[in-house]
TrEMBL record:
Domain PpiC per the UniProt entry, residue ranges: 162-251
Record's catalysed reaction(s): [protein]-peptidylproline (omega=180) = [protein]-peptidylproline (omega=0)
Keyword Lipid metabolism attributed: no
EC number: 5.2.1.8
Entry's Gene Ontology molecular function annotations: peptidyl-prolyl cis-trans isomerase activity
PROSITE patterns reported in the protein's UniProt record: PPIC_PPIASE_2
Listed Pfam families: Rotamase
Family of this protein: Belongs to the PpiC/parvulin rotamase family.
Name of this protein: Parvulin-like PPIase
Enzyme class: isomerase
PANTHER family: PEPTIDYL-PROLYL CIS-TRANS ISOMERASE HP_0175-RELATED, PEPTIDYLPROLYL ISOMERASE
UniProt keyword list: Isomerase, Rotamase
InterPro entries linked to this entry: PPIase_dom_sf, PPIase_PpiC, PrsA_foldase, Trigger_fact/SurA_dom_sf
Length: 311
């Protein structure tokens, strides 16, 4: 069971941009008017850095890709996992071309750019410093205590013999389309290929693979059909609120409740988020903080004498 859901935020690119970058990777040559390698600042990199790609002589390293992934986490959720590297390489390539062109035009010294650089420097310093401060506030003993106090008792209530299944599906809009899918599969066509071709679901890029899941993690008609299948079995069309599914069972297994070691990082992240919020409050109340202009409270104030719900 997923006890904690960590929410990450990032820039959400338009769907069209995602599609264009995946479908039309850079690096096929051609002039864009963005200058040549000699027009930009030095493209020096760490001698040990792993080179992932290059654009017009400028190297794209794994560190570049990792930073782009952090900045575009939610965007990546719209891209098939197998194409993450290509998508991120495109983003970094565009960034490097644009930055080189901007430097060539002298924008690096403009007031607007310098102001944004100063802001980003402050933000990076903040992120690193806050992370260090918050990390120091959450000890391994506190993580263990949270597990023992809140998580372990809940796990103890669960049945140790919990069944999960792994399944693939092809999602289409109508029953007729689903029946056609079944016919094509029974005629010998490959499920993975058909999922990539026809499925409307986000798992299409993975050949329809949904990974392992518990019965309660899917809508009931889907779960009932998936859990009733034999290994390798193919379902009849199944209707849910999302459309019509054709399901193939890949595997089933019995899993035990997760251990402390398996959950410790999630618990730590949860506790660190709580500490981060408290630390922010401490900073704002410790120092002389004045807001000029609109002084509306961020949250409504409640009368302590008024109950929040009927008692």
């Amino acid at each position: 069971m997923r006890l904690f859901i960590l929410i990450f935020t990032g820039f959400i690119a338009p769907i069209l941009l995602v599609a264009l970058l995946v479908a039309n990777p850079l690096g096929s040559g051609g002039s864009t008017g963005l200058g040549t390698a000699s027009d930009t600042a030095s493209n020096e990199i760490d001698a040990n850095a792993k080179i992932i790609a290059s654009i017009d002589g400028m190297k794209i390293t794994q560190n570049d890709i990792d930073r782009a992934a952090e900045d575009n986490f939610e965007t990546l959720m719209q891209v098939p996992e197998a194409q993450h590297q290509l998508f991120l390489s495109n983003l970094v390539a565009i960034q490097k071309l644009a930055a080189r062109a901007a430097l060539k035009e002298g924008l690096g010294q403009s007031e607007a750019v310098q102001q944004r650089i100063a802001y980003q420097k402050e933000r990076i310093l903040q992120d690193v410093w806050i992370a260090e401060q918050v990390n120091a506030r959450v000890s391994e003993a506190e993580v263990r205590a949270y597990f023992d106090t809140y998580v372990a008792p809940e796990l103890a209530k669960q049945n140790n013999d919990v069944e999960e299944v792994q399944a693939r599906h092809i999602l289409v809009a109508t029953k007729a389309e689903a029946e056609t899918v079944v016919q094509r599969l029974q005629a010998g066509e490959d499920f993975v290929d058909l999922a990539a071709e026809l499925s409307l679901g986000p798992s299409a890029g993975r050949g329809g693979d949904l990974g392992y899941f518990l019965a309660e993690e899917m809508v009931k008609p889907f779960s009932d059909a998936a859990f009733a299948l034999q290994m390798g079995g193919l379902s009849a069309p199944v209707e849910t609120e999302f459309g019509w599914h054709v399901i193939r069972l890949e595997d089933r297994r019995i899993v035990s409740p997760p251990s402390f070691e398996e959950l410790s990082e999630q618990i730590r992240a949860f506790l660190e988020q709580q500490e981060r919020n408290l630390f922010f409050d401490e900073l704002l109340t410790t120092y002389d903080f004045q807001v000029y202009g609109d002084t509306s409270p961020l949250m409504p104030e409640f009368d302590d004498d008024v109950p929040l719900k009927d008692e």
